[in-house]
Structure formats: C-alpha cells, structure tokens
TrEMBL record:
Keywords: GTP-binding, Magnesium, Metal-binding, Nucleotide-binding, Nucleotidyltransferase, Transferase, tRNA processing. It is an enzyme of class 2 (transferase). Mg(2+) 2 binds at residues 42, 89. This is tRNA(His) guanylyltransferase. GTP binds at residues 42-47, 88-89. Its cofactor is Mg(2+). It comes from Penicillium alfredii.
Length: 300
C-alpha cells in the first residue's frame, strides 16, 4: 500500500497521520563507526568583518581570545569532545572514535557545534570589543563540515596540517603587514616582493629591515590555540601512548551507566587553552587521555 494512503490511527499513545510518509524522504547521514570525527568551522566573510570592526593586522588578540572563549564553551557543553584546535577564524573540534553522540549523525553534530559556537561568540562579543557593538549586516556567522579520519596517525597529521598552516600564514602575514605598516610599502609592492620567498627570506626581512626576531612573536600567533581537558601531566617516557587498538574500542559496547560515568568525569575537568607544539610526540605522550579518551587524574 502506498504510504500516503496509510490509515490514520491511534496505537496506544502513538498517533500516525496520513502525512507521516514524508519522513521517509529524510536521508541517513551516520558517520562511519570507529573513526575520528573532526568538525571544522570557519568564519564566513571574516576578511570583510575584520575590516568593518577594525581588527588589528595581522593579528587581533581580542578576536583570537573571543574565538577561544566560544570554543571553551563548546567543549564544556559537549564532554564527548576530546580536543580542539583554533587559528584565525577557524576551529577544529575532535570527537573520539568511540563517540556515540547523536548516533554519530553528521548534520546533528555539525549544526550543534556551529550554532553553539556562534551563540557564544555573539554573546561574548561585547566583552572583547566593548567599543564596537555588532551591527547588521556585519553579524558573525560560521560554516562547518565533518570529516572522518580512520586512524590516530591520520588524525594527528590533520592536526599537524592545521598547525603548519598557522605557522606559514602567520609568518607571511607578519612580514607583509610589517612591510606595509612599518616600512610604508604599498600592499602590491609588499606582495610582489614576498612572491616566491621561503621562510628564511621572510625571517631575514623582518630581522634585517625591522629588527624583529620572529621567534619573539606571541605563541598564540605562531602556534594557534589547542583546547583540551586538563588532568595530571605524565612524564613522556612512563606514559603509554595509546595504540590504534586502544582508541578503537566502540563506546557502544560500553554500558550506558559506564558512558554516563565517563561523561561526568570529563565535565569535572577544566578545559584549558594552550599555545604549544602539537606536531611532535611530546604533547600527546604527556596527555595520553586525549587519544585514549580515558579520563586521567584531576590535578590537586
Ligand atoms: P570565507 O567566508 O570563505 O571563509 P573569509 O573572508 O572568512 O572567507 P578566510 O580565508 O577564512 O576568509 O580568512 C579569514 C580572514 O579573517 C583572514 O584572512 C583575516 O583577514 C581575518 N581575520 C580572522 N581572524 C583575525 C584576527 N584574529 N586578526 C586579524 N584578522 C583576522
Ligand atoms: P533534539 O535535540 O533531538 O532536536 P528536541 O527536544 O529539540 O530534541 P524535537 O524533535 O526537535 O526535539 O522537537 C521539538 C519539541 O520542542 C517539540 O516536540 C515541542 O515539545 C517543543 N516545541 C518546539 N517548538 C515549540 C513551540 N513553538 N511551542 C511549544 N513547544 C515547542
Ligand atoms: Mg573564513
Ligand atoms: Mg578561515
């Protein structure tokens, strides 16, 4: 029988209507099980928005602190997140392979993160930009997507990719804006001169022409921001780096009460904002709970 002509009836308390067949048009979008889920959000049109609110070039610290403050609230709201990394107008939020939130439905995960982040970003705007209130049409909004990564190695390469990108862009932007703002060059002249240069050339321009040692720039500019739950740090060698097998135990095999217990423990931990290297092993070895998803000892 055509679902459209399904009988309208009451089964217990469950009411069905002749219109319910439309539900079947909804497409399933469940993300592959036992894979890392990264939801990356990015500010829409932030180039224009940053001009309108007169962000300092190349780095406005208030804007970065606001991004981090919104991301901390997302991490607090969703204890299933194990780490997040932010640079410029983007943030990557990482769910563990064992995550079962929203049955791993793509749209639910992405839209929840995007809207929670945007809500907090707008809510806290005034704290970071007290003298420039938000004005339509320059209202901050973000897009988002979920990408799955099958192994811990690839997840770490993804994180490294974002941090390397941060470094490359920041070195370029720092040199470019120094040439323009301190060197009085036009945007086009600075761009022309930087075309085809490598890192050492840019370091040299900064140092020889402007006396700026790039190494002395703020860590938040050079390394971006990494957010995670804080437990007692482990010494790199004694700590066990989780194996691929450790990270792939499906949470669906854990009981509900076990899942709830873990979630409660995660909520107790403080979410911290760090500006450190996440490419080398040390960061992950000292914080094994990020990849294992087993809460550590709360710091005394
Ligand atoms: P899209 O909508 O395609 O993302 P976009 O204008 O947001 O376009 P992005 O490539 O995301 O472009 O770049 C973000 C831009 O926002 C940067 O190039 C920079 O101009 C500006 N921006 C973001 N954060 C800051 C900041 N903290 N300080 C100064 N400028 C910033
Ligand atoms: P989820 O997070 O899975 O979306 P939900 O609690 O938001 O869960 P929905 O299936 O989206 O559940 O249903 C929305 C519910 O919100 C409705 O069942 C109704 O109880 C309530 N609701 C939504 N809009 C209104 C409204 N205008 N007036 C009264 N109640 C509303
Ligand atoms: Mg953007
Ligand atoms: Mg961007």
């Amino acid at each position: 029988m055509c679902p459209r002509h399904k009988k309208v009836g009451v089964v217990g308390l469950l009411t069905t209507s002749r219109y319910e067949y439309v539900k079947a048009f909804e497409q399933p979008d469940i993300l592959l099980p036992n894979t890392w889920i990264v939801v990356r959000i990015d500010g829409r049109g932030f180039h224009k928005l940053s001009d309108h609110y007169v962000f300092k070039k190349p780095n406005d610290l208030r804007a970065l602190d606001l991004m981090n403050a919104a991301a901390v609230e997302v991490m607090k709201d969703l204890p299933d997140l194990c780490i997040a990394y932010g640079v410029s107008d983007e943030f990557s939020f990482v769910f563990h392979p064992s995550c079962q939130l929203f049955e791993r439905r793509n749209a639910k995960l992405v839209t929840t993160i995007v809207s929670t982040f945007t809500a907090h970003y707008i809510h806290q705007w005034g704290t970071y930009f007290p003298s420039t209130p938000l004005q339509p049409p320059y209202l901050p909004s973000f897009d988002g997507r979920a990408v799955i990564y099958p192994t811990t190695r690839i997840l770490r390469d993804y994180m490294s990719w974002r941090q390397v990108d941060c470094h490359i862009n920041n070195l370029y932007n720092t040199t470019f804006w120094t040439m323009v703002l301190q060197g009085g060059m036009s945007n086009t002249d600075a761009e022309q001169e930087l075309k085809g240069t490598v890192s050492s050339d840019k370091n040299e321009i900064l140092f020889k022409r402007f006396g700026i040692n790039y190494n002395n720039e703020l860590e938040i500019y050079k390394k971006g921001s990494v957010l995670y739950r804080q437990y007692e740090l482990q010494t790199p060698n004694s700590a066990q780096t989780p194996t691929e097998e450790d990270t792939s135990v499906p949470e669906s095999t854990q009981s509900r009460s076990q899942q709830d217990k873990l979630r409660k423990l995660r909520r107790k931990a403080q979410v911290v904002v760090d500006h450190v290297d996440i490419i080398k092993d040390e960061f992950w070895e000292r914080r094994p709970w990020i990849l294992s998803n087993k809460p550590g000892k709360l710091p005394a």
